[in-house]
Amino acid sequence: FSTGGYSALYGQALSSALILESTDLPERTQADLGISVIGVGGGIQHLAKNKKSSWGVSVNYTNLWLAFNVIKQKQDFFRVPLAKQADANFRIKTKNGGFLKYYGYISTNKTGFRNPDIDSLTLKDAFSISNVNTYQNINLKDRIGKGWKINTGLSFSTNKDDINNEMQNASNNKVTISTPSFYSFKNFSLLNVARYAQARFVLEKKIKGLTAIRFGSDYFYSNEKTTYALYDGTRYTEKIVDNIYAGFAETDIYVTNNLAAKVGTRIEHSEVINKWNIAPRVSLAYKVAENSQASFAYGIFYQNPERKIMPAAAGLDYSKASHYIFQYTLQTKDHTLRTELFYKKYNDLYKTARGINGRELAANNNGYGFAKGIEFFWRDKKTIKNVDYWFSYSYLDTKRNFLNYPSEIQPTFAASHTAAFVFKRFVLPWKTGFNFSYNFATGRPYYNIAYDNASAKYTIADQGKTINYNSMSFSVNYLPNLGKTGAKTFAVWVLGVNNVLGQKQVYSYNYSSNGSRKEAVTPPSKRFVFIGCFLSFGIDRTQDAINNNL
Question: HSE-up of 87 (CA within 13 Å, CB side)?
């Protein structure tokens, strides 16, 4: 669960990075089909007879009409969530044992709903969004002679969000009110069109034993265009284009058989900021015993301002974080223990100020903050027969003075304590698995940060903490084909209920324009029931279906 201290091969993330690895060739040709109360989906992965290449496609259709008609939702959905997704891939094994891989997908999503307007007793806010997202990635990983390996790839993605919001009366007809003025701005449309591209080139060579060096470069391109239309038809268009160039070098050094180090440096330049940064990274790992390891990681990490606070004032620098992470891992066949202590210091965070149109835009790098805590994970597959259970706990002490925060305070996204427990038991004679999970988090802070015209400063007009978060979920899986010899079709029926007890959950609070009224942000429904059947052909994928629907 490493929360930071990641490799010099990656950048543009202050706290952590999610690093994914694609699989090589499938074991054999396989197909799958899933039917549930929320939609249908299926796919195929075909392995060539010579087992040197494969291709695959999948299609998914999601429609929450049935689920929302059975389970009452808090919002009035005039457009039930609808999603369509398709993807394709191929893998080709090279003569040197490497792989050429491609993956691409396209997805569309639509939804629309009404909520009571927080500034009125009779009016409603009607919000709708349509999204189209695409992604393409091609990657080559191969040996090129004299002990060198190459890992290079290209990716391109697009995203289009078409958002509309309007104020409506009790008959669901659009209304326009000019006094007070903030009512007028509740009728708007927003069109955001974005294009992103990335190119990566990495060379790697083992020098002696397990010691290795690797170096390369990254290029990121982003082009985001936003058109905002007001209630009176006035349009504002913004376009942000950035080119980020990066170079990096890293080495794995085995000091002894039990002690290894990873030392690296990353250099970046962003056209938006028009400055260079250099980020050293180092980590040490010590093998304590046969199945356990202790490690330490240190690094400096930089990040550009987010799109929502752009365009920014001239002269901005990168925001910066320094990580110090200690981790201990014990891994055996039946048990896993991981614990991590971390401290992260944030500097040069972006502070915002009101722009001409009232938007919060990055104004300077005067922000700062910290995060420290501990994470713990324990998994046991042996102690109780036919039972697999795991437990995780996290303690987080963090404060930030960034964006429009008037001082250093706990951010709204941070809970001091979070914990999760998962219990899985399989009853073989019944061919049935029972899964139980419980999630807990202490309340998170919420603030009504308002601009005081008299002092020309931001102040906290109201604040508090949400109630603790509790959610117990339960699912049952039935495997009718379990134990059948020579089976080519594998099936699993899934019944799942989240928040079984209907415990009250509050994520945050929304405030009216004058701050006199606040409303809790809660889930659309107290609980949700999932029923589905998943079939796999060629390879038994029932465990994947079970884990995906815990």
Answer: 18
